[in-house]
């Protein structure tokens, strides 16, 4: 059975496509791409159909990640088929939990940096959109740090299903 993860930020052109790309690479490196499906979306539809922000694309490609992406808006109807909805900041977390049709669906929503033991108390991945390339590089570092531990948590869930 496929385990489905969706990363969500505001417009689905900066943080969530970056997280999707990094996590997809981690999943492939672990040989789990047949078991884990990875996607992303935005809480709003302003950029629907657009590619990722050029700065996101540049930072991903400079670091060896795939940058192919088409922005889309998160649809609450997806909740039943998703196993985990990963919010990139606390405003997304609140918005997604409000959209969740059931308490069980709301429990699927988690902050990405909650998977990074070194994150401390600030679990938001700051929006790099209005800044320069350094913000996108910092975003990538946060995403990479959390993705390793997120994969471990998903792997644990998969093993629990198999038992």
From TrEMBL:
Please indicate which superkingdom the organism of origin belongs to: Bacteria
Q: What protein am I looking at?
A: protein-tyrosine-phosphatase
Q: Which organism is it from?
A: Streptomyces thermospinosisporus
Q: What keywords does the record list, in alphabetical order?
A: Hydrolase, Protein phosphatase
The UniProt entry, under InterPro entries, shows: LMW_PTPase (IPR050438), Ptyr_pPase (IPR023485), Ptyr_pPase_sf (IPR036196), Tyr_phospatase_low_mol_wt (IPR017867)
This enzyme's EC code(s): 3.1.3.48
Q: Which Pfam families match?
A: LMWPc
- Tell me where in this chain the Phosphotyrosine protein phosphatase I domain is found: 3-153
The text of the family note is:
Belongs to the low molecular weight phosphotyrosine protein phosphatase family.
